[in-house]
Automatic annotation (TrEMBL):
It comes from the Eukaryota. One of its GO terms (molecular function) is hydrolase activity, acting on ester bonds. One of its GO terms (biological process) is phospholipid catabolic process. Pfam families: Phosphoesterase. This is Phosphoesterase-domain-containing protein. It comes from Hesseltinella vesiculosa. Keywords: Hydrolase, Signal. Residues 1-19 form the signal peptide. InterPro entries: Alkaline_phosphatase_core_sf, Phosphoesterase.
Length: 312
């Protein structure tokens, strides 16, 4: 009964006091946002919008979780890596291929978050840090590929021991949920291939859909993951090389404005960064984030101010 030895925090929720164990080393989310207190970005790889939207789970996912399907959302580039780099830095930063990027002259979302004490982690499924805790710059680790991990593309992160500790394997997420220690900004990259075998599995919509269902559904029932959280599910880029990089993106969470059934506003991967900035009142990075359109969300203002108040 490990949890009995930990301190408990209690929440007053409509006449009921609920207590949950708290790991005192790892505080619960603390910097309140305008629309959400946590953003979880999950990036799948290589699917055309038209193919992904036909999948029975993906096409109903938004409705299951008070969400919205964005019908006019575009990737930034081909091949993959530049899309990930753009999501966290507001620019493809000169990256054109999937070879190791080591950018040394750009700021990222990490600089913005840390400037306000907002916790972050990237969970990269098969990734493991080096034994001394520093960043592992390997191209492949199991079915992890470095070109889907933009945090490794910036030397301000990959050469910083204090930041390397926030690049963690996928398994750490369940541990963090159990300890009520999920950070306020989460960037999750699944393996390119869940079951071993050919790398092309990632471009198979139905295998991506089954992976997502198994990964996401249990987590959505846990407050430590989903409470006041905006979940963004997106694809890095389309699978074909000929069209306009139209990818499926879904926003899930109680702050999503469902006044229309779907949202056809033109967004792209820079909208993620812009929404982070908007939510926590952070400055821009002076790149394409400046002109990007943030997601249209309801605010959390109607909620009790001290919804994390401590009674124990
Ligand atoms: C998708 O991948 C799974 C697992 O490898 C395979 O069984 C299935 O036939 C594939 N589907 C398509 C449409 O390629
Ligand atoms: C939701 O969006 C609609 C249409 O843009 C807007 O009129 C409405 O005020 C929004 N609702 C909230 C609660 O923000």
């Amino acid at each position: 009964m490990k949890w009995l030895s930990l301190a408990s925090a209690c929440f007053l929720i409509s006449h009921l006091v609920q207590c949950v164990p708290v790991d005192s080393d790892k505080p619960a989310p603390s910097v309140q946002g305008k629309h959400f207190d946590r953003m979880v970005v999950i990036v799948l790889s290589d699917a055309n919008y038209a193919d992904a939207i036909k999948d029975p789970y993906l096409s109903t996912l938004a409705d299951r979780h008070q969400g919205l399907t964005l019908t006019n959302y575009k990737g930034l580039a081909l091949p993959s890596q530049a899309n990930y780099v753009g999501m966290i830095s507001g620019s493809t930063s000169g990256v054109v291929l999937d070879s190791d990027a080591n950018i040394n002259d750009r700021k990222t979302v990490v600089d913005l978050l840390e400037s306000k004490g907002i916790s972050w982690k990237t969970y990269q499924e098969d990734y493991t840090p080096l034994a001394d805790g520093s960043c592992n710059s390997a191209k492949n680790i199991g079915n992890y590929v470095r070109y889907h991990n933009p945090f490794m593309a910036f030397q301000s992160i990959s050469k910083s021991p204090s930041r390397c500790q926030y690049i963690v394997p996928g398994t750490q997420l369940d541990v963090d949920i159990k300890n009520n220690a999920v950070p306020q900004f989460v960037f999750y990259t699944p393996n390119v291939n869940e079951k071993g075998g050919e790398k092309t599995l990632i471009s198979n919509v139905s295998s991506a859909s089954s992976w997502l269902k198994e990964f996401l559904e249990p987590k959505m029932t846990q407050d430590a993951f989903s409470k006041d959280t905006l979940v963004v599910v997106t694809w890095d880029k389309q699978s074909s090389v000929t069209t306009n990089n139209h990818v499926l993106t879904m926003l899930l969470g109680s702050m999503v404005n469902r006044s229309s059934k779907s949202d056809g506003v033109p967004y792209n991967h820079y909208s993620i960064l812009k929404t982070v900035q908007d939510n926590w009142g952070l400055p821009s990075l002076g790149q394409k984030d400046v002109g990007a359109t943030p997601f249209i969300l309801k605010d959390l203002a109607g909620k009790p101010k001290n919804r994390k108040s401590f009674f124990g």
